[in-house]
């Protein structure tokens, strides 16, 4: 997502919008009635996202389905009615964005023909290329010519899969059905988009085409964990979260380093390209840009250290008159899994 957002094109806007739409829908699905500003932000985010690419309305529908799935259709309807004018305005903004997207697509005749007779052949090819498309959803840069180190693909799969499985274990039956259904939707959408649209028309299926739906799953997983994680596991989860944060920061820097290395000295050039004489350098040379790329990694390490410190503080026995150290007495509120509008854990 970071790489695509740095390019001149609509993919970065589409991806960022899809993630923001899922975040807005999940925020609206929490137990408390959201304030007016949340409705306004959700409406603007979804309305703007609808205009990013021809397939963007599909991601808005998927994001809305996540929110409705977390609540139930009846509760979602009451939540919408209870939102009053801000909720009505948000719906109107989304409808305007969707209408604008459809009208623009029709006006430019951006309809891709589907050759139904070749659908079966396309499904076979889509299945054969699924592994490469999965790698691209993690990161293959350039013109699909700059892969990451193999270890990073395994590590990213482990992190995302671990979040998904943890949420599936602690979630309610509704959460599990939503997680499983979301994963199934991603797989089916990949097959259909690849077989019926991209492969048939000569574009070739790429991971970025399905990534807007895929990025919603980790966000849903974290929402379920923040809501359903038992209090007795909160401190351990915070320690694990510290590791996830630190590894993610290091992985992002490694990805930037891999892409930069390719254009500085080529795939077979020396690793420390910015210390020698690279064949290509950005304005100002590699040193300031490398230092700038280290800033997010350092911030991630600082966040990981803070999470670990909070976990240690939560498990430490109370000291003082009348205190009774009980390892199971701490509450999840001691660890800020969510920064505001926290809900009590349901056992």
UniProtKB/TrEMBL annotation:
Any one Pfam family match given in the protein's UniProt record, by short name: DUF2142
UniProt keyword annotation of Transmembrane helix present: yes
Residue spans crossing the bilayer: 38-66, 87-107, 151-170, 177-203, 209-226, 238-257, 286-304
Keywords for this protein: Membrane, Transmembrane, Transmembrane helix
InterPro entries cross-referenced by the UniProt entry: DUF2142_membrane
Protein's UniProt name: Uncharacterized protein
Top-level taxon of origin: Bacteria
């Amino acid at each position: 997502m970071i790489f695509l957002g740095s390019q001149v094109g609509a993919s970065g806007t589409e991806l960022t919008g899809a993630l923001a739409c899922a975040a807005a829908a999940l925020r609206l699905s929490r137990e408390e009635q959201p304030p007016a500003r949340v409705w306004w932000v959700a409406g603007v985010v979804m309305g703007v996202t609808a205009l990013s690419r021809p397939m963007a309305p599909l991601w808005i529908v998927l994001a809305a389905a996540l929110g409705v799935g977390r609540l139930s259709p009846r509760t979602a309807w009451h939540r919408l009615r209870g939102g009053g004018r801000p909720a009505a305005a948000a719906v109107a903004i989304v409808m305007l964005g969707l209408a604008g997207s459809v009208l623009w697509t029709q006006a430019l005749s951006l309809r891709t023909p589907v050759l139904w007779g070749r659908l079966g052949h396309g499904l076979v090819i889509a299945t054969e290329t699924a592994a490469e498309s999965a790698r691209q959803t993690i990161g293959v840069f350039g013109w699909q010519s700059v892969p990451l180190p193999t270890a990073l693909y395994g590590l990213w799969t482990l992190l995302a899969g671990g979040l998904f499985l943890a949420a599936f274990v602690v979630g309610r039956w509704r959460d599990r059905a939503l997680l499983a259904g979301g994963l199934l939707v991603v797989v089916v959408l990949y097959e259909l988009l690849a077989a019926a649209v991209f492969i048939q028309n000569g574009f070739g299926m790429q991971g970025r085409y399905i990534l807007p739906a895929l990025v919603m799953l980790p966000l849903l997983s974290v929402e379920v964990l923040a809501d359903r994680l038992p209090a007795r596991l909160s401190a351990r989860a915070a320690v694990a979260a510290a590791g996830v944060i630190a590894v993610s920061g290091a992985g992002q820097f490694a990805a930037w380093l891999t892409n930069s290395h390719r254009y500085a000295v080529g795939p077979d050039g020396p690793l420390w390209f910015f210390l020698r004489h690279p064949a290509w350098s950005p304005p100002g040379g590699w040193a300031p840009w490398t230092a700038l790329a280290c800033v997010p990694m350092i911030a991630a390490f600082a966040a990981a250290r803070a999470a670990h410190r909070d976990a240690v503080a939560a498990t430490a026995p109370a000291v003082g008159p009348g205190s009774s150290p009980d390892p199971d007495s701490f509450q999840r509120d001691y660890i800020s899994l969510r920064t505001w509008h926290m809900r009590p854990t349901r056992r």
